[in-house]
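Before going further, learn to read the protein records used in this course. Taken together, the tokens spell out the fold as the letters spell out the chain. A record is reproduced here so that you can trace the correspondence yourselves:

***
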Amino acid sequence: MLRNIRSRLESWPLASPFRISRGVKTVAEVVTVEIADGGALGRGEAVPYARYGETPETVLAQLRGVEQALANGGDRAELSRLLPPGAARNAVNCALWDLEAQRSGRSVAEAVCGGRLRPLITALTVSLDHPESMGEAAAPLAGARLIKVKVDAGEPEACIRAVREKVPDAAMIVDPNESWDVSLLERLQPVLSELRATFIEQPLPAGEDECLDGFDRLVPICADESCHTAADLDVLQRRYDLVNVKLDKTGGLTEALTLIEAARGRGLGVMVGCMISSSLSIAPAFHIATLADYADLDGPLWLKADRPGGVGMHQGLLVPPQPGFWGSRREN
């Protein structure tokens, strides 16, 4: 019997605008994939990202191109040959992991991280705005353990100071999303150190970061847009101290696990990040976040409403989805 494959575009409105240096988002557009095989159903979600040349239409077209192979029983290894790293492969790869868990009764947590998922610390993001507005947005996060501050090249010092004033104790990630140049990065080193930035994430544009090789830094630097798969690491290990692993860049859980292992082997720190998405994207990422130094998985917290049974916050920790949501057998 052939598998039944369904893919579709979904829109999830945000509770408030999410701004970074490249623009503002008010709706999360995600592509979901469902693979039905007998009585089992595997689900996956991905976020097409314009920064990487993706649109919902191109991702859906990629998915249509592999439907027949999947219907005929194509597995994760075959998928890696059929699709490049990116959102389309991610949605299918995660659906196949989920399908295997439904059929075998062995959860993804057992296969990936040794058992039951537990609550974890996630970064809570203060999106880009005027410094005063960022301070106001940060005030409710005063008790957070880890925050991420989105900045651009306009008023980065003022923005970081406004947030730090309201959140004096949390570890802090500063994320310019490729908007700085090396002179600004160099000038802000003392400020980043003074304000106790834990690390700075992708300050320079990907492809223009060769000057980080040998750069005299006061805080560590993490690769995001420069890091997609393990193949990138031979270059990145000379320029960065950490890498941000996102399933929509790696093309799913399979390559993400390879990337984390390879990064560890090169002495690099690891953060697991996400796009603005529903909990169906976050559930697989939650598994590999248990293997990382940092997690930045607050994407669903920006939505007006998330999928039932998804992740939540409790006492400052991100709580995993309910059993059966993804990656473990669902009760009929």
User: Anything to note?
Assistant: The first strand starts at residue 4 and ends at 20.
